[in-house]
Amino acid sequence: MTEQGVLKCGLEENLFDFIRLVDFIVLASAAFLAYYLRHDHLFMELSYVSITALGIAAFFAAAHSFTLYKYRNFHSFLRQAVLIMLSVCIGVFSCVLLLFMMKISGDFSRLWMGYWLLLGLGSLLISRLFLLVWFKGELKKGHFVRKTVLVGSNPRALSLLERINEPNRTNVTVLAIYMPKGEKEEEKINLPKITQLKDLIAFCDEHDVDDVIITTDISQSEKTDKLLEDLRSLPCHVRYCLPSTLFDRGLINHIWGAPVISIYRRPLDVRQVRLKRLLDISVAGTALVLLSPVLLTIALLLRLTGQRDVLFRQERNGFAGKTFGVLKFRSMKVADVGTGDVKQATRNDPRVTKLGAILRKTSLDELPQLINVLRGDMSLVGPRPHAVSHNDHYADLIESYLARNRMTPGITGWAQINGWRGETDTLDKMEGRVKFDLYYIENWSIWLDIKILFLTPLSLFNKNIY
Asked: By residue range, what is the domain housing residue 203?
């Protein structure tokens, strides 16, 4: 699953943001049309625009309190109609009440209010009917369906599967069962079985899985620690399903009628992915334009010093462990392609050219990665992508090492500005870098990204860069 693939997920984030936008356009258009019907021109006075904005804000406040924009209320047109009527009435009558309290109700046309109420209500109901018909058609095509993998083949998994397969839960599908090696199969469930963690990660990536639900008994601490450590590497939500005897007890966190607790969440939701991508594209695009003279100068100097290819491409692990070619200015006489036994640069490394040493010390050799950012292979900020061979080596030595792949790798990162740049010649150094990477992933915010970008120039003075 690429992070762009996350945009396909998140039913409520995508669908209901779109519905809110439609509702806003409908209500605003109805107000302007009502004004035209009453006053015979479209140029609404500022006082009417202000009261329209107030009415729409009151509508959305009421709609949210009535949970109008929740999936559980979206399937039924009758339920939607009732909630829309209540919200519209509250929105319009809030305006009337305010105007009455301010003693300026005489300045506004009651006929305009009535037109707005009828036009807005009618248009919202018609648009919602079309949206519901369209949505049910999309469900039949397999769109807007949450894809799930269950962990364990046991009575609890069977109970949850029966819940999910109920006719009114058309937005959920279970694709497979994950059975770690040594796990006993208690129930025969007719679903594909996955036994290897690497196969599970690949499966979640390939099928854009939204949720992995643990149904096994996690009372044994040693097995629990190992299982949770493994599942931390997944680029999706990881939840634990409580015993089936609690299914109908009305607990706070319910999903598909079953009580669950969240263990790991997807690092970025849909809005955050969009926001981070917007920052990446705007900054990387601007930087490429502004730094184009620097890039051309470096390329020319490399050619003049005998380098045939000024750029080289090295295989690295990216989001969800997918490999991609990271771009760099050539700074060595020979360059590892990223597979096999990749040796990191060390002090006085004979492979590094004189010009290459300057480029590496100033990190100018990393500038072509702005192209990787525009392609979507990388982000401006994130865990630094490691060579494929390094990932394979450290995955078995460092706890939760593969969890670094839950977010798109970056040109710079939280670990780098905190001193964990350059060579990682000991296990302790790599563990330190991973610790900071995981902190960044689990505490991400757009402000943290901006902070890291501003502090990155200071980290270039690190003496550990060769």
From this structure: 146-266
